[in-house]
Amino acid sequence: MRAGANFSRAYRVYWEDTDAGGVVYHANYLKFMERCRSDWLRHLGIDQLRLRTERQLQFAVANAAVSFIKPAVLNDEITVTAELQRLGGATIEFKQAVWRAEVQLAAADVRVACIDSVTWKPRPVPKDMFMEWRNAG
Question: Rounded to an integer, what distance in angstroms lies between the CA atom of residue 83 and that of residue 136?
Answer without folding.
Answer: 10
